[in-house]
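Exercise 7.
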Amino acid sequence: MPAITPLFAYPKFWAECFGTAPFLPTTQEEMEELGWDSCDIIIVTGDAYVDHPSFGMAVVGRLLEAQGFRVGIIDQPDWRNKDDFMRLGRPNLFFGVTAGNMDSMINRYTADKRMRSDDAYTPENQGGKRPDRAVIVYSQRCREAWRDVPIVLGGIEASLRRVAHYDYWSDEVRHSILVDAQADILLYGNAERAMAEVAHRLARGQRINTVTDVRGTALLRTDLPKDWAVLDSSRIDRIGKIDPIHNPYASDEELAAATGGKCRVSEDPETKEQVLTFIPYRERLDRSRTVIRLPAYNKVKNDPVLYAHASRVLHLETNPGNARALVQRHGNKDVWLNPPPIPLDTDEMDSVFGLPFARVPHPKYVGKNIPAYEMIRFSVNIMRGCFGGCTFCSITEHEGRIIQNRSEDSIIQEIENIRDKTPGFTGVISDLGGPTANMYRLECQSKKIEAACRKPSCVYPGICPNLKTDHNPLIQLYRRARALPGVKKVLIASGLRYDLAVESPDYVEELVRHHVGGYLKIAPEHTEEGPLSKMMKPGIGTYDRFSSMFDEFSRKAGKKQYLIPYFIAAHPGTSEEDMVELAFWLKRHGFRADQVQTFYPSPMATATAMYHSGRNPLKKLSYKQSEKVSRVRSLEKRRLHKALLRYHDPANWSVIADYLKKTGRAQLIGNSPHCLIPSSPQNTSSKTARKSRSFATQHVRTKSRLGNGRLGKRRLR
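Solution. The predicted structure, written as C-alpha cells, is:
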C-alpha cells in the first residue's frame, strides 16, 4: 500500500491554543463562551448532536478539534431557508455536510415506501426533522448562505451515492450526489484520513478545486490528467483481443517489438548478471496511475444491464491494496473517484476512540429521549469493516472489507469510562461488537495476498483458506471485560457470523455460557439455495450446525437460551416457492417471526443492481447469455413474501390461501401437520389469536433489546 501520513502526525493548526471544548458549539453564545470569534469548520448534520464515538458528527468533529481546528455543529437545521445555516457565522475553511448516521431516505421511508412517523436520531423519536435527500438540500442551503465557502460531503448517504446509482424511491438512476448537490468534494467511507488531509491542505491555503489526489475522495473534473492511462470499461463485458502465439525462438527484444511490450533490465539473483525480461503491454501499466472509465450516466440511466456492469466493475475496485481510480461521465464533466482510503491501524483506531467525547447528548437535549443514543449508551465498538460481502448490505462499500481493530487496552478503558462516567450505568454492557460480533482481529494470513485479492467475500462460497479464523483474541477480550469490577454482564448483540463461529467451538461455548441474555439474534436470511446464492450467504446447514452447538453449550451451562433467526423477504433471486419452503422450515422449527425484514434496495449495493437490472453482476455479464435474476418488484408480491414469513398470523391467511389456490397447492390449506395454514381462518378461536399476539409481543420486545447491534453499529457510521 502507498505511504501515508499517520492520522495524528500533522502539525496542529494554530487554533489548538483554544483547547478542548466540553461540547462542540452549536450556537454563537457557546462560541463566545469558548472565546471563539469564528469557526474554522462547520459540520451540518441531520442528527441531533450526541457527543459519542458511535455518532459520525462527533467522531469527525473531535478528530478535527484534535488537529487544532475550531469546529462547530449545526444539527437538524430548519432547511426551509438559509437562516439556520448562518447561525454560527461563516466558516473559515469549509462546510462539512452529512445526512447523519442513517441515509435520510431509509430513515424516512419503509421498504414499502410508506413514510415513517418516527426518527430514532431525533429527540423524543419525532419524525420529519430532516428533509428527504438531506445531503442535497443542506448543500443548497449552505451555498445560499455563504456562496464562496467550499462544501465537503461525507457520511453514509453521500458515500453510497458517489457514482450514478439506482434510486429505489423514484425508480430511476440518479446522478452522482456530487452533481446534484453541486458540492466541491465528497469523502466516502470512514473518512478520518481524507478529512484530516483536506482540512490541513485548505488551512495551508490550497484551493479546494486543486485537491484532486486524496484517497477516499470523489470530485468533479473537466479533463483527465495527461500522464494517466485510461482503461475503457464503458461497454458490457466482452471477449478481448486474442494474443497471438509467439515464436518460441524469438528473443525478448523481438517479442517486445512485435507485441507493443517492453524489456526490463534486472539482475539475476544467482549469476548476478544483467538480464532482459519481457513485459507484455497489459502488465506494464502502473495501477497507481491508471483510471477505469465506467459507462456514462446517460448510458446506465437507460440501460439496466450496463448499470449492472458498472456495479460489477466498481465492486471489483474496492480493495485499497490494488484498487484503481474510477471515472464516470456526467454531462460535460467527469466524476472522478480516487482509490479507497487506507484502513486505520490499531494505534490510530485507539486514538480516534480515545478522543475526549462527553459520551452524552448536547446539554440542550437534557431531559429528552434520543432513542438511538439510548440503544448504544452502554455499548462498545471494538472494530470496523466486514469481509462478508453480503450483497444486500452496504458495510463493505462504506467501511471496507479489511477489519480495523482497536487494542484490548483501548476497549477496556472505554468500558471503565462507561462504568465510571456514563449516567444510569447498572453494570451491564449492552454490546461488545461492531458491524459483526466476531470478526475482531480476523485477517488474511498474508498481507501480500490481501493486497492483491479481488474477491468480494472472504467467507463465500466457503471460508477462504487464507483467512485466519482464530477467535482466541476475542475470547480473551470477553474474559477481561467481564472480570472488571463493577461490570455484572457483558452482552453480545451485534450480528454474529455463525459460519465463522463454528470454526471455533471454544468461542461458541464462551459466548453461550457468559454473553447471551436469554436470546441470541443471528441472520441466516433464508433457507433456499436460490436466494442465498444471490445474497452470498452460507447454506442453512451451517446454521443447523451452529444451532446444535448453541443448544449443547446452553444445556451444559444449565441455561434456557434461544436463537432468534432473522430472514429477508422479497430479495432478488427469491421465488414464491422459496418463500413457501422457508415458511415450512419456520413452522417445523416452531419459529414465529414478528418483525420481518423486507429487502430494501439501498444505493450501490450489489443486490440493488440485481433488483434494477434483473441480471447477476456477480458473474460475467452479456445482453444474451448472462444469468438472469428473478425480482420481486410489485407491492402485491412483496406483501405476499412478507405474509409467507408470518404464516402464523391470522391476518395473513387469506393472502396466503389465495396464492396457494391460484398455484394449485390448495392441499397445503388445512389442519393436518403437512399444511401451512388452517382451512377456516374465520373460525380461529380468540384464544389462538390471543396466543399469537402474545408470542408476537414477546418477539417485539426481544428485537428491541437485541437491536443495539444493527442500529448502533451497522447504521450509525
